[in-house]
């Protein structure tokens, strides 16, 4: 396993015998490994060995009904601090409060925040002002270059992984799967550090998981702009429910700006549902998915929290079905403290980068940081340039009188294949949202074009406009 307290190391490091990984090891094999480790003098406490053997027995049983969790922070860079903070916080709740075995939780995140040179508290990540450290003890299975949409989908499909911790989703027809995804989004897109997950590919994977009976019920919690666009067409008959931070036409929001760290500590919707979960602890069985959705929707005033898919069965399940029973042995209630998000500041996610830079600039006054001012000026100019180029692309495809129609509002995605081709081309040829998040305020113009024109026409326009600019 890979622990988050490995200091400033982008490479994976083994900490104990538990870092030896095999594809679906037998109970006898695990016993043999423990004996080997003890013989060669590896230090491992008796309580840890007992706990590990107990997990091995549980994993090799045929009883089923386990909870599996996949947690993803898809961004990189210190200004995106909040995404990894959200995921680390949730990991602490699931393991230290809710009693879900670490072996049944898979974590993907860049791991470039805790020991980032911009972090004034090296090795510490917090998810609220004056909050406790949520980083220490977080076991990260896939980091750095392994945080990709391809790996994410392979993990969901339970495919064998040849790197990272090699952990994959080994759920079956009796199991409950919880997926928490936190990052930037676009119309029909969830972001990753250097690539994007498209609606077309996610839909295909969910259909395949359903056909292969890889779960009994699955619940998604997604914090991203336009996150509703990923689940608008989700069938209610697939035993999947998706709760999103925003609808298909709007941004999600960053919350809690920390002057000490010069960045936002959390995302508004995520802080709300995490806070709600902590408030009802340890009685998670007394609140249903529907009740949590309604409570969080009421508290999330910056965007419109939405829910899609199965609104019949899963909707009425207690959240303990997916988040655990709240009975972690030996839990100290002071280890992960309750918090109430301080809403002194919130900003739409596409504007978070420029907002963060401007706040840092204000904090320096009356001094002037020329490098910081140049960075702000670059992004302000680039945002204007993005709009000009997108307008040019639309006019290369559609009559001038139609421009306003494609700019007016976000349309439903009826051609996810075209949406993938077109937005991939724009990201790869023009600008990427990972470095220029404000482009997502305008790229829906291209998605709208897909509902009226062939992808070939739009791709030619993108190539011509971006190459000339």
Description:
With 469 residues, the chain is α/β, with parallel strands linked by helices. The protein has 14 helices and twelve strands. The protein has helices at 27-39, 46-59, 81-97, 149-156, 199-211, 268-280, 289-299, 320-323, 352-364, 370-397, 403-408, 416-429, 444-449, 455-468, and strands spanning 67-73, 105-108, 176-182, 185-186, 189-191, 196-198, 217-223, 240-244, 253-258, 263-267, 306-309, 346-348. Strand 5 (189-191) and strand 6 (196-198) form a beta hairpin. Residues 1-63 and 332-339 have low confidence and may be disordered.
In short:
The protein is of the alpha/beta class and 469 residues long.
Distance between the termini: 46 Å
Helix content: 25-40%
Mean pLDDT: 87
Low-confidence region ranges: 1-63, 332-339
Coarse structural class: alpha/beta
Give the helix tally: 14
**Main beta-sheet strand count, sense and barrel state:** 6 strands, mixed
Given the C-alpha coordinates, what overall shape results? globular
**Strand-residue proportion:** 5-15%
Strand order of the largest sheet: 2-1-3-7-8-11
Instruction: State the total count of DSSP E strands.
Output: 12
> What oligomeric assembly is this protein in?
single chain
